[in-house]
């Protein structure tokens, strides 16, 4: 390797810069709430949080011969933030870049559709076979959707 | 729509002509619905529009003679994907501020097994990591610059980054929750002249071309997860024009690792390159070099500080590299990226780079975005 640059000093500089910006990000208050994965199909099988993460990263998840279709819920900023931090283990921008990079690399990995209007989201759940999305459990009860996974609950 | 002369498919079977004809037939069939309603009924599509603009200031010995001191760039990239039940179509068009544009990728494919698709068209070469991850999507890469070894062939790169021909993409489950992807490419690479590499084109004046073959394997411990480990290898035969030799046979092999544990990311790639220059007025000669880069990123909310080190060994002994005076043989850089608004990023980067003529400093700023 070329010795004009010291790798050790470069890495040390990077760590120092990184620590300067490494501010911890508290989750917004979500007292006693549960984040769940829901579907409109009453006979849908349950999923583990690990399967949900893979599904939202673009992997094919098939249950009972049905390929699940993830929908991104942008109607509630807090629910989205909790989903990103506690299920996807990455920030929203990092997740979106990961999906776009996958799309650019594979040319076929179509990204999950995004919904910022709750009525549109619930309508899409009803109209799209095997579609799932995440939301607070109290919203799921109000809309009559079936819970197929508990993703996070306020400790 | 221009339909190809059937003679292209039966007479002169040059790889570019055959691939171009196949692309036209398949693209035409897809776009005009010749293949029937049931295919269109299950179709899905997606698209992205990338925009970026940046400015760079350089100082050091090679600046002025070899490199511009101040440079501004702006570009736009459009990407579109269409999928029927078994047919696929993909296009990536890149346009620069000088009015030039490039049909970077144009692919028509047939999925003949659930995880396997055969494509024809123009591709980015799998003999790399960076180019086949980010392509022309400047917003997607954390840094402003790309590593010297991963520069596009039409921008001073030393490894052909495009080919025209066919590619087989496949994936299968591997281990517990993991997956193994492979890409096998076969076709025509570009040629080399006194200005460096020329990309093969689907449209435009014909240029000499010879065979290129590539294979890349990528293992993801968790399917869909950004963490991946890969190996790639290939051989490019490139005709030479206006040079004292007639052909370059380039053999490339490499390994890549991309480890992501939010908020930390470590990316490393090593290339082994051997070049053989044959024919012409000078005796046959050969050489090789090793090049690698390591990039660290730390995403803290909207801020991402990053650093990258690049290095080469044996570059002075490879006669092929004499054609590429701007090839960055070593570099140390640090930068800061800010993600803001709706999928926009602002990047600031400082680098010390080493080329054949000497070492120079570079400071750059860039804005980029993607829609939707």
Task: Please give a structural write-up.
The complex is a heterodimer of chains A (155) and B (372). Chain A is α/β, with parallel strands linked by helices and 155 residues long. Chain A has one domain (34-153): Periplasmic binding protein-like II (D-Maltodextrin-Binding Protein, domain 2), CATH 3.40.190.10. Chain A is 43% helix and 19% strand. Chain A is built from 6 helices and 8 strands. Chain A has helices spanning 7-21, 49-56, 77-88, 92-106, 118-127, 137-143; strands at residues 34-39, 62-63, 66-67, 69-70, 72-73, 114-115, 131-136, 146-153. A 4-stranded mixed beta sheet of chain A has the order 4-7-1-8, with helices on both faces. Chain A has a two-stranded antiparallel ribbon with strand order 2-3. Chain A is globular and about 40 Å long. The N and C termini of chain A lie far apart (51 Å). Mean pLDDT of chain A is 80; it is low at 1-5 and 10-26. Chain B has 372 residues and is mainly beta. Chain B has one domain: Porin, CATH 2.40.160.10. Chain B has helices at residues 7-10, 15-32, 37-41, 130-134, and strands spanning 44-60, 70-83, 87-96, 101-113, 116-124, 162-174, 178-188, 191-193, 196-198, 211-220, 228-239, 247-261, 264-278, 285-298, 303-313, 330-340, 344-355, 358-371. In chain B, the strands form 2 sheets. Chain B has a 16-stranded antiparallel β-barrel with strand order 1-2-3-4-5-6-7-10-11-12-13-14-15-16-17-18. In chain B, strands 8-9 form a two-stranded antiparallel sheet. In chain B, strand 14 and strand 15 (303-313) form a beta hairpin. In chain B, 47% of the residues are buried. The model of chain B is unreliable at 1-16 and 28-41 (pLDDT under 50). At the A-B interface, helix 1, helix 2 and helix 4 of A face strand 1, strand 2, helix 4, strand 14 and strand 15 of B.
